[in-house]
Structure formats: C-alpha cells, structure tokens
Amino acid sequence: MLRKMITLVLAACVALSVPFARADAAVEIVFWHSMTETAGESLENLVEEFNRTVGAEKGIHVTAVYQGAYTEAVTKMNGMLSAGRPDTLPDVMQLDATGKVVYGAAEAAYTADDLLAERPDADLSDYLPPALKNWNLNGVQLGIPFATSTTVTYYNKTVLDSFGVPAPVTLQDIGEIKAAVGDGYTVYAAVPNTPTLNNWLGQMGSDLVNRRNGSEGTADGLACVENGALLTFLTVWKDLYATGALDNADASTDAFAAGKLLVMTSSSSKVAGLLDRIDGRFELGVCAYPRVNAEAAGGATVSGSCLVMFDHGETRRQAAWELVSYLCGAEAQVSFARATGYIPGCFSALESGAWRDFVAENPQYEAAALQLTDTPDTMLSATVGPSADFYYAVMNDISDMLLDDLTPEETAEMMADDLGGMLEIYARNNR
Questions:
Q1: What angle do CA 59, 62, 67 make, to 5 degrees?
Q2: Same domain as 110, residue 64
Q3: Within a domain: 17
Q4: Range(s) of the domain holding residue 348
Q5: pLDDT per position as a tens digit, 213-268
Q6: The whole model's pTM is what?
Q7: CB 368 within 8 A of CB 149
Q8: pLDDT digits (tens, 9 = 90+) for 4-17
Q9: Is residue 33 part of a domain?
Q10: What is the DSSP string of 161-214?
C-alpha cells in the first residue's frame, strides 16, 4: 500500500453530483490541450467517454481543441489576456510550468482555490502531494495534476547485464559503467537544463532560485550558490565528464532505441514510446533519477501539466469542474498512464487493481510512480520569469565549463552572474 486508504477512496477523483442541464440542452464547454500522437489519441478518447457518460447524464458537452505545444497554447492564452478578450479563452486548459505566472495573475482564472471557496465539499486530499503542490503559486492552488511526469533513468538492461553492471544509482556509477563496457558504446549523453539541474540540487536540499524556487514570489537570484550545492554538482559533473562516460550533448532517443546509447535520463512520459521503438531488440530498464553522490537524497521534481479553469459564469464553471474531476480521477488517470507512461496523479489510481495488475506485467511503468511518492513535496520545480532564456543559459554555461575546461568554481561564479543578473532584470521590470 502506498498509504492507508483515507476517507472515501475516490474523494478527490470523482465528479460532483449536481446535474447542470437537461440532456437536450447541454452546457457547452471548450477544452484546450497540447497532447499529440498516442497521448493525444488517449486524451481525445477520454473526452469522448466523458461526453457519453458523465456529460450525457449531467447535460454537459465538451469540445476538445488541440492548441499546439504547451508554449504555443500559453502564447495564445497570453495574447487573449493581453487583448482583453477573456471571453475567447476556454473553460478548461492543459497548462505546463511556462504558463503558471501569467495564469496565476489573470483575473479570468478560476483557480482550484476559487473552486474550494465556492464548493467546500470538493476534496483534493487524494492527489499526490508533490504533484498537487507543483501547481501552487504564491500560496494559491492553480490547478489539478493531469499529465504528471518526473525524470527517470532509462538504461539498456541487456547490455549492462552482459557486462555484469547494475543499474546506476549515482552519477559516479555512470562513470563506472564506462570503465566496464569500454569504448564500444556511448554511455550517457546529457546537458543539464533548468529542470534537470533543479533535480540534482533538490537532492541536496537546495532550491535552484530563491523565494522557494519562485513559488512564493518572483525569483530574483540563485539560492544554490551560497549553500555550496551548485559547486558540488558542477564538481561531480566535471569529474563524470573526465571519465569519458558523458557526452556533452542532448540525449538522442533514436540512438538509445538503436542500442548505441546505454543510459538516458528523460521524462517518464516516454516509457510507452520507447518500448514501441525498441520493439524487443533489448530489455528496457527504468530506474530512479541518478543521485548526485552517495550522500544525496533520491527523488526528482514533478513536471508535466495540470488542468486549469477559466471563469465563464457559474454554470460553465461547474461543468468545467466536472470535466477536470473526471480527467484527473482514478479511472481516467490509469487509462492515460497505461497509454503513455505519465504517472497517475492520485492515490486511488495507484492503489487500484487496474494499475497494480498493469505494472506487475509492465514493470517499466512503475519506477516513476515509486520515485514520485518518495519525493518530498518540499522539492519544488523552479518557476522563473525569463524561463526560455534561463533554460538555455543553464545549458550554455555548464557546457562552457566542459568545453573550455573552466573550474567548477569559475563556472559557479559565471552562473551566479549570468543567471542571477537575468533574474534581477526580470524582477525589476515586472514589479
């Protein structure tokens, strides 16, 4: 058991019970999403199932509209808000971290906290705390976890077993894989970015940026410099590069699926796609995100997306919550996770027979869920204003350390100047 069953097992994962309209006079609501391929097909099927069941019963009809990748959808949301056209926004939107700040400041937002104030019978206790807290900004619960993911380690179990090498637990272990397999394989390819660097810092009890990783106000500086966590990571990273195990490049899913790359850290949402692409050529291993060192705690921050709502009047607000409750509920979460590799976002889904039976036959899907339930909700993802520029600056500065043979101390100072300066300018211009 992941935890003892509390109150009603589906407390937060069931729809509200009040009908909204007659079946022949449906409330029409719009849902924007950013899912493609298998995930998109699965999500569209869930919306159709909602319309056939809960929607038909309660007089609600949902039109799902693909709005491009997360950043494209957020850009459209920003444009409509800037133009003063909140009436053109959807009732429900799939939102990732790039849209948290703008959504949180929008008058048209109907946050989960607004819902709780209006519907005190609604209960969020069934949602996994790290997943739920990821969508809390400045003390306000913005939305509900839907497509929840975390970063995990994928490895070629067939090759590692043939050399008698276990799955890596720490970054040092990845260096030891290189010593065992020699030069016939690329062992690990990665360039740290905002979320992955934040994962490693979080394992050491440090945030990446101040103000609790931007969750309690606009971050205007790095939190990982004075406490030494950034320097510790950079030292370990450069040592790993010196072993020859690390290729300073983004990991290629093609190379991994072809068996040319042995270890890859990436989103848990890739499990289903990787299994299809590997097609039995080797056994896919999936384990927890590597620790910085033996002293570091495990875990990795939550990523993915949540569902948020916009206020288009009481009737549509209530209908929107019915859809959110359904898509974030146990049955839908298990169905979506099985099709994709995303993690079910509520306890009742993880404790269900359907999920347990599935992971017993498909163990690659379980590593991410186990890691997430072991990750404390104090280990937060980083929310920064200049998100795109900050992301690439992290990558460029750490790459420069390796390519220009800078010391970890020099690199930490450079990152404090580059990233800290970027945050200061953004905070000053957006007060």
A1: 165
A2: yes
A3: no
A4: 27-148+302-374
A5: 998 889 999 999 999 999 999 999 999 999 999 999 999 999 999 999 999 999 99
A6: 0.84
A7: yes
A8: 333 333 333 433 33
A9: yes
A10: HHTT-PPPSBHHHHHHHHHHHGGGSEEEE----HHHHHHHHHHTT--SBHHHHH
